[in-house]
């Protein structure tokens, strides 16, 4: 009887632990929580989220925009930061002639921080993986120093229509 009770308790405990990962926390929320931890010491708590870009340099920003939009929603719901609205961000980036693809250098990060009055930006890179999956590498970058103060990574299933096409290698004929 004692073995049955111990076995029953073990099953309940095991089920409890396995269900923790499915307790309403999705990959984007995990990413938001991890990045938010790194922003605990930001002065005003005002941030901007830039569309993510592929590491292979492909043109287009559909996938990066979808991912950054979903992350934005999760960051807003955390109610930890003041998030700059996407339309304001796009307008400022266009005025500053900054790429909206998520590729930012130290100078443009600092400039964006000054104009928007944000302490940090969230941006990152995407890597296409097998089976319709995308690796998302996010960074929280302090605008004053252009230094990454936090990073997180998730792998997501691409569940939206359309998107950015992979760059096809150019084949050259050899004579």
Task: Summarize the model shown.
With 175 residues, the chain is α/β, with parallel strands linked by helices. Helix content is 39%, strand content 22%.
- Ends distance: 82 Å
Q: Report helical residue fraction.
A: 25-40%
* Rg result: 20 Å
Helix count? 5
Mean pLDDT, to the nearest integer, reads 81
Principal-axes geometry comes out as: globular
User: What is the chains' assembly state?
Assistant: single chain
Low-confidence stretches: 6-22
Strand content: 15-25%
How would you spell out the order of helices and strands? Answer: HHEEHEHHEEE
Count of β-strands = 6
Main sheet? Answer: 6 strands, mixed
Decide which structural class fits the backbone.
alpha/beta
What brief labels describe this structure?
175 residues; alpha/beta; six-stranded mixed sheet
What do these coordinates show?
- With 175 residues, this protein is α/β, with parallel strands linked by helices.
- The protein is 39% helix and 22% strand.
- The chain is built from five helices and six strands, in the order H-H-E-E-H-E-H-H-E-E-E.
- Strands 1, 2, 3, 4, 5 and 6 form a six-stranded mixed sheet that branches.
- Helix 2 packs across helix 3.
- It is globular, with a radius of gyration of 20 Å.
- Residues 6-22 have low confidence and may be disordered.
């Amino acid at each position: 009887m004692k073995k049955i009770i111990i076995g029953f308790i073990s099953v309940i405990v095991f089920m409890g632990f396995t269900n923790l990962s499915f307790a309403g926390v999705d990959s984007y929320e995990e990413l938001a929580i991890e990045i938010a931890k790194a922003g605990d010491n930001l002065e005003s708590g005002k941030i901007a989220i830039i569309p993510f870009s592929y590491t292979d340099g492909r043109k287009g920003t559909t996938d990066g925009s979808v991912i950054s939009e979903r992350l934005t929603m999760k960051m807003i719901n955390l109610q930890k930061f003041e998030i700059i609205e996407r339309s304001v961000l796009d307008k400022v980036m266009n005025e500053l002639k900054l790429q909206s693809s998520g590729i930012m250098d130290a100078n443009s990060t600092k400039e964006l921080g000054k104009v928007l009055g944000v302490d940090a930006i969230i941006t990152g890179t995407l890597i296409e993986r097998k089976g319709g999956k995308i690796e998302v590498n996010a960074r929280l970058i302090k605008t004053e120093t252009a230094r990454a103060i936090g990073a997180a990574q998730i792998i997501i299933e691409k569940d939206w229509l359309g998107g950015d096409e992979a760059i096809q290698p150019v084949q050259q004929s050899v004579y």
